[in-house]
Write a structure and sequence with these properties.
Elements lengths: L11 E5 L4 E7 L4 E6 L4 E6 L5 E5 L4 E7 L4 E6 L4 E6 L5 E5 L4 E7 L4 E6 L4 E6 L5 E5 L4 E7 L4 E6 L4 E6 L5 E5 L4 E7 L4 E6 L4 E6 L5 E5 L4 E7 L4 E6 L4 E6 L5 E5 L4 E7 L4 E6 L4 E6 L5 E5 L4 E7 L4 E6 L4 E6 L3 E9 L5 E4 L2 H10 L4 E11 L7 E8 L5 E4 L2 H10 L4 E10 L6 E8 L5 E4 L2 H10 L4 E10 L2
Antiparallel strand pairs: 1-32, 2-3, 3-4, 4-5, 6-7, 7-8, 8-9, 10-11, 11-12, 12-13, 14-15, 15-16, 16-17, 18-19, 19-20, 20-21, 22-23, 23-24, 24-25, 26-27, 27-28, 28-29, 30-31, 31-32, 33-34, 33-35, 36-37, 36-38, 39-40, 39-41
Amino acid sequence: MAVLGCASHGYAASITVGVGPAALAINPVTNKVYVVNSSSGSVTVIDGASGTVSTVAVGTNPTAIAINPVTDKIYVANGGTNDVTVIDGATNAASSVAAGDRPWAVAVDSVTDKVYVANHSSNDVTVIDGATNTAGTVAAGEGPMTVAVNPVTDKVYVANWGSNDVTIIDGTTDTASTVTAGVGPWAAAVNPVTGKVYVANWGSNNVTIIDGATDTTSTVTAGVGPWAVAVNQATNKIYVANSGTDDMTIIDGAANTLRTIPSGYSPRGVAINSITDKIYVANSGTNDVTIIDGATNTASAVAAGSEPWALAVDSITDKIYVANISSDDVTVIEGPTHGPVYRFRSLKNGSYLWSADENEKATIISTLSKSWRYEGVAYTIDTANPLNSSALWRFVNLKGGYYLYSADPAEKADIVANLSKSWLCEGPAYNVSIDSSGAPVWRFRNLKNGTYLYSADVNEKDTIVNTLSKTWQLEGPAFYIAP
């Protein structure tokens, strides 16, 4: 039986990777995820369909990654060996291309098949021809930190931390010009639909907006320490993660009007699913991911690993991958859909088990079918609804091996404090609602053997009450499911 760690996991699974995962990227064509392990000089390759992993050696201190889904080539910037590892996505074979001093960021133009590498200490950009792996160099400002590409206009934007400006490279001619930014430009994102570029200035707590057609600039205020920025092309909204004020600045790209909503502590990464209009924020200080509904600006949270640092969204599978730099793993979050909860019945003592974990379900069916009978989906839960955000704690009885579930914090605390010799906390099984406006899930206690039964089926509940009251005692709603 899989044991659920006592840290919250909700609808998230965990995959072990290398040491210090600091960046990741997804190829939606192949459904593969590439995780940069900054302290072990490797890239973990996750098969999104099966969850299996493999490892590719790269240079030392890899810091950034970008993918060309057209050619299935993956590019990793290695800050310690001053080169770029090129991985063939079909074979995982790797080669290297020399870069400048301390390559820090990388971006790909899949239209021109060119790769742009910002070299932080040599103040330049390495331009790699993806077809031949030959490279040239374009001068940038001081301390380039990030690079963003507009594939529509064939322009490249390099944010220079040291000189407080942005180098604009013409991808056709490799000529460069410069526009002034704020203090300490740290991150940049492009909206290729509008041609605008958004530069988060960490030192001046604002965002420089570059009009891609004229290279003129304007400025909007952000929170303290804007660390990351992402654009939803479908809604023309821009999301800025402010690491110092623990919130998100939302910019309306049409009017440049602003809204602020809270995030977790010390947000470090932002990713967007433009299909579902959901925004995901990696909070390194609270070890969770804030999920923002772009339509309503309401927010909920899902637990991640230790110090989530970066994340990426696969819009096709609606999965979110979170790189946890201190726990050396990747949290995989299912998108905001109605997730199933499965019910199993013990063939030994007639007790029940409920699980929303697909891996646990598969393990029980494949290896424990002589002990547990699969009864199907008990109910589904909309994980996008912020009301469904209360942890449902799972306990196993140490004597009888049966399970108790509780969303009541007081009951959970009482069991942990006073009944630990009988009940072991296995952690949150999944998230539910404690708002009585939702559909109730009823709890019954077996008067003969002390086991528990939970049901969201009104007909089943009424049948038990009317015909099995000598065996099962109705204790009332245990929790609720918000629609």
